[in-house]
UniProtKB/TrEMBL annotation:
Protein name in the entry: ITA10 protein
Single GO term (MF): integrin binding
Originating species: Sterrhoptilus dennistouni
GO biological process, any: integrin-mediated signaling pathway
Record PANTHER family: INTEGRIN ALPHA, INTEGRIN ALPHA-10
GO cellular component, one term: integrin complex
Origin organism lineage: Eukaryota, Metazoa, Chordata, Craniata, Vertebrata
Superkingdom of the source species: Eukaryota
Length: 148
């Protein structure tokens, strides 16, 4: 039997968010058919909207020196992390994981979080004891490699 293939390209509006797209296809003919009821098909597919997220960060300290065998943290600085939805579709259940603090020689803490300020978000700060199995210490040799 003859077959026809075609592609449907649908464009969606930001003002009306749909859960499903429904399309009805009907084939007609001048011939007399025995089973005309199979000439109609209804297709319903779920719509998934692609998010357009933008992650940015800003810090007020761009460089500080950590001595290879130091056991003290560096200077205090502020880092701001922002997650923005640049698209027009709502985004839910976004989770951002940040791995801090960093560990140095003999697992000495060279970076730690002193406070967290959050807007429109819920932040959970886990202690080093809970994350210690996943934190890889930085060796003194790695700290001696300075990019110039």
């Amino acid at each position: 039997p003859p077959q026809v293939s075609f592609t449907l390209e649908l464009e969606f509006s930001c003002s009306i968010l749909l859960d499903r797209a429904e399309v009805t296809l009907e084939a007609t003919s001048d011939s007399t058919e025995v089973t005309p009821q199979d000439n109609v098909v209804k297709i319903s597919v779920p719509i998934l909207y692609q998010p357009s997220l933008f992650l940015s960060s800003h810090t007020n300290l761009h460089r500080y020196e950590v001595h290879p065998f130091s056991h003290s943290s560096g200077p205090e600085f502020t880092t701001t992390v922002k997650v923005q939805n640049l698209g027009c579709y709502p985004v839910q259940n976004v989770t951002l994981h940040m791995a801090l603090p960093a560990l140095g020689h003999h697992r000495a803490t060279i970076l730690s979080v002193t406070r967290v300020l959050a807007e429109n978000a819920t932040c959970v700060l886990k202690s080093l004891d809970e994350e210690v199995t996943r934190v890889v210490p930085v060796s003194p040799e790695e700290l001696q490699d300075v990019e110039r």
